[in-house]
Write a structure and sequence with these properties.
31% of the residues lie in helices and 20% in strands. It is an alpha/beta fold and 864 residues long. The strands form eight sheets. Strands 6-5-1-9-10-11-14-15-16-17 form a ten-stranded mixed beta sheet, with helices on both faces. Strands 2, 3, 4, 7 and 8 form a five-stranded mixed beta sheet that branches. α6 links the parallel β9 and β10. It is globular and about 90 Å long. It starts with a helix and ends in a 14-residue tail after the last strand.
């Protein structure tokens, strides 16, 4: 191990503080011994050799071990000695320090009772690790047991933690040797695993000591807690990097510290969701002061994805700083690689390359891109090397390697203009151009948020964006949901897909699986089957689809169950998603909900007096109605989609029509709920998801109205237009705006789905007529997504990568449509006119199709 003199000068050392662990990795296989007794349920044998290395440091210890064993040349390393600060048993100081050297514990394994470690120098000059709390009672240890299975695959069978209750950390003790070390510290790395050592007392003591020593170190933080309470303690410190591992990002999925939930971080095509970008901006803003900027924020939504937000100097204008983002996906199908921790390795790599590349506010975006690419490449190399401890447990030896030896990345992270994506989000979800005309805009300008006034300059309506270069485009990636290939514009649909995807992910990863079930109601032809099939494919599940309307008798359902059992027997290792369509349909005059009670509850069904078992699987039921939904009194129900409905009439509906309570015990057809229907509903893993295209009535209460808009409205637009509903001077528009918002989500979805279908049917098409796009928006609600596909298949003479209005079939152009307009201070609907007539005044321009964020021409995003 190199000395301080070898690798750094004064005041360039590193302090790693956080939760320390000693990890042990045991690899086992089946043991078949005739002489062994008391073998229990499972008898295994260790696959290690006498010289195998099974132990290593984890948590903050892993980060320090990586930095300490770095064999990079001093002239490129750019930082000095690494020191560790943590909590462990007082008698383990020497053992902990010896583990910093990867070769220091070779052969230290359970074949030997006495530890086989190199002697550690704990003199004042040689000590590298310090206990912050001297009254700690034990050293945290973690044992992971991996099992070798068929085809050289591996599974993590057990994790055993030797961990006592969190100690009640008292006053921090800064010893004189530690104080001498702190006087040389330039960088502080915090690795928080939520075990309590990283707390306000610890950080306050360190900050006070640094201040007394005249030191102002740079801070790099990695925490498994989303916005931990202690983070505000460092607000006025020089924080350079904040890394959020998957454990932290999953907490934001449940409850964001700033009052809102992040349903999903990245949507299809690895595009950051709007709420994800807001959350990152908010947490960064919370650490910003007048004297310093906020840190670079990196979120790991999963082991395989990275999302970063940073500010960099413009390459064209050195005096200008811009906000950029980086998104990257890591692909590895090796089962052993999945068990090697990535976030700690990536944290060490990010810091090392930060120093090596001397990143600073003057660095341009491409340099930051190289920084993340190099750090990920090094992480991949380290993970691949350490996965051999599982693949070749009998011969594996730990090794050191220099951080500058990483292979050049095969694929760099996607660089995008963060500000542009966030700024133009609302503009990408404006449906009707009439919302942007002078008269309409003047009615909104006085009370719309200032930043939303930009929407007018950025949108042509129908989801079409424009910029200073006047290049119209439609960016498909903005409408993508979390499920690959699945468009999801209405908020309810995006939230539903995120919820179900999360549940499926937990099901697939769980060892003790139980049946999971969901119910989705949507209009006919709304794309339910495709949506659920994509969910299954995204999680590598077998997809079994059954349609109740294709069955003749209730007994035919047993054939469906037989198919599930047979499929599970053919491939037990692959989980199954069962899709039951038209669950509302009746067989032999009766509802079929009772047939699923036993399979969902107990995992079995009966045929001819015999019981057959179903292994746990995911069930998704779909229909056009929610059987558990409360009914609407026909005497008070008013159709907000009624032709010719004026703003005044719509306003009266909103203000005067009472809506029955949600506790009503009647289903949608007015009949009382049967006990079997109630039992079926009680077995669902989540309340039913409703994706209806429109509401027939709205509740009277303003709060309920707003909840309805947030569920159905388009991302960004409910905030834009809700303000109209809250101002008395605009009450004349209130009812119409509510009705408009209800329709808008599906209007935009038809546009984006239509463009997506065009790309699938005609892959060479790169530009599409704005008149075709506007016609998609004008299609009436009765036209399903299935109908749209059929119409688009009838296009003729599509040539030279362009789809023009003349290429559309005659039946499509003569299809009756509807269009919202704002004229003479009143919103109204033009309908019963052909699409040809409705769109004749649309300026026909060619609009460029941008399928994904990675294909976005950066000249459109201010990055030229």
């Amino acid at each position: 191990m190199q000395t301080v003199a070898d690798i750094g000068g004064a005041q360039s050392d590193v302090l790693v503080v956080g939760d320390w662990f000693v990890d042990a990795h045991w690899v086992v296989g089946p043991h078949r011994s005739d002489s062994a007794s008391r073998t229990g349920h499972d008898h295994a044998i260790a696959l290690h050799g006498l010289n195998s290395t099974v132990r290593e440091l984890g948590g903050a210890g892993q980060v320090m071990s990586l930095l300490s064993s770095n064999e990079e040349a001093p002239e490129t390393r750019k930082f000095g000695q690494a020191y560790g600060l943590g909590s462990w048993h007082p008698g383990d100081d020497a053992y902990i320090q010896s583990l910093l050297d990867p070769q220091g514990n070779e052969g230290d394994n359970p074949f030997f009772l006495a530890p086989k470690i190199k002697a550690a120098d704990l003199s004042e000059e040689g000590r590298r690790v310090f206990r912050l709390y001297c009254d700690a009672s034990g050293t945290n240890r973690v044992i992971r047991v991996y099992r070798k299975r068929a085809n050289s695959s591996y599974s993590l069978d057990h994790r055993i933690d030797f961990e006592q209750e969190l100690p009640n950390f008292g006053d921090v003790e800064i010893t004189e040797p530690l104080r001498q070390v702190l006087s040389r510290i330039k960088y502080v790395l915090v690795k928080d695993h939520g075990r309590g050592l990283v707390n306000p007392k610890t950080l306050e003591a360190l900050c006070t000591e640094f201040s007394n020593l005249g030191q102002r170190p740079q801070w790099f933080i990695s925490t498994k807690n989303w916005h931990p309470k202690w983070l505000h303690q460092l607000k006025h410190e020089d924080i350079k990097l904040l890394l959020m591992p998957p454990e932290a990002s999953s907490q934001a999925n449940v409850s964001d510290a700033f009052g809102s939930m992040v349903h999903h971080w990245l949507v299809s095509g690895r595009v950051p969701s709007r709420r994800a970008m807001q959350s990152i901006d908010e947490i960064r803003q919370s650490l910003k002061t007048e004297k310093k900027d906020g840190p670079v924020v990196i979120v790991l939504p999963s082991r395989s994805t990275v999302l970063a937000r940073f500010e960099a100097q413009s390459e064209q204008n050195p005096a200008e700083r811009q906000t950029f983002g980086l998104v990257h996906g890591v692909q590895s199908h090796d089962s052993a690689n999945a068990f090697i921790p990535r976030s700690g390795i990536l944290f060490a790599a990010l810091f090392s390359y930060w120093c090596r590349m001397e990143l600073n506010p003057g660095s341009v975006a491409s340099v930051w891109q190289d920084w993340l690419a190099s750090s990920i490449s090094l992480t991949d190399k380290w993970v691949e090397s350490y996965a051999d401890r599982i693949r070749r447990a009998d011969t594996w030896r730990a090794q050191s390697f220099a951080f500058d030896q990483a292979e050049p990345p095969a694929r760099k992270p996607t660089l995008f203009d963060w500000s542009y994506v966030a700024r133009t989000h609302a503009a990408a979800f404006v449906s009707w151009p009439s919302m942007l005309d002078d008269e309409s805009w003047s009615k909104r300008q006085s009370f719309a948020p200032t930043e939303l006034k930009e929407v007018r300059a950025q949108s042509l309506g129908f989801g079409i964006l424009q910029d200073s270069h006047k290049v119209p485009r439609i960016e498909l990636w903005r409408a993508m949901s979390e499920v690959d290939g699945c468009i999801g514009v209405p908020r309810a649909k995006r939230a539903m897909l995120a919820d179900i995807a999360r549940e499926i992910d937990m099901f697939v990863k769980s060892k003790d699986r139980v049946h999971r079930s969901f119910l989705v109601s949507d209009d006919p032809g709304g794309g339910k089957t495709t949506m659920i099939r994509l969910l299954a494919e995204g999680h590598r599940m077998r997809f079994l689809s059954f349609n109740v309307t294709e069955l003749m008798r209730k007994s035919d359902l047993l054939g469906c169950f037989d198919t599930i059992v047979t499929t599970q027997a053919q491939d037990p290792s692959t989980p199954i998603l069962v899709f039951i369509d038209e669950i509302n349909a009746k067989l032999e005059g009766e509802s079929i909900y009772s047939a699923f009670l036993a399979p969902l509850e107990d995992g079995h069904y009966s045929r001819d007096g015999k019981t057959f078992w179903l292994e746990p699987c995911v069930w998704v039921f779909a229909g056009t109605e929610n059987p558990l939904k409360s009914s609407v009194d026909p005497n008070t129900a008013v159709d907000l989609n009624k032709p010719g409905l004026s703003a005044v009439d719509a306003l009266k509906i909103v203000l005067k029509v009472e809506h029955p309570t949600d506790e009503s015990d009647s289903p949608s057809d007015g009949a009382p709920l049967s006990d079997k229907t109630r039992d079926f509903g009680s077995r669902l893993s989540k309340p039913p998801f409703e994706l209806k295209r429109s509401l027939s009535v709205l509740p009277k209460n303003d709060k309920k109205i707003k909840e309805s808009l947030r569920a159905i409205g388009t991302p960004g637009q409910e905030e834009v237009l809700w303000s109209q509903l809250g101002h008395e001077e605009h009450a004349s528009l209130r009812g119409a705006v509510v009705a408009w918002l209800i329709q808008e989500g599906r209007t935009l979805e038809r546009v984006y789905v239509g463009v997506q279908l065009i790309k699938k049917l005609y892959p060479e098409v790169e530009e599409i007529s704005s008149r075709v796009i506007s016609a998609l928006a004008c299609l009436p609600d009765k036209v399903s997504l299935r109908d749209i596909r059929h119409e688009l298949q009838g296009c003729t003479e599509v040539q030279r990568g362009r789809l023009k209005w003349m290429n559309m079939s005659r039946t499509f152009r003569e299809e009756p449509g509807r269009m919202w307009n704002y004229e003479h201070k009143v919103w109204h609907v033009r309908e019963s006119e052909s699409l040809e007539e409705l769109t004749k005044d649309v300026e026909d321009r060619m609009v460029k199709i941008i399928p994904s964020l990675s294909t976005t021409d950066m000249s459109w995003t201010g990055m030229d």
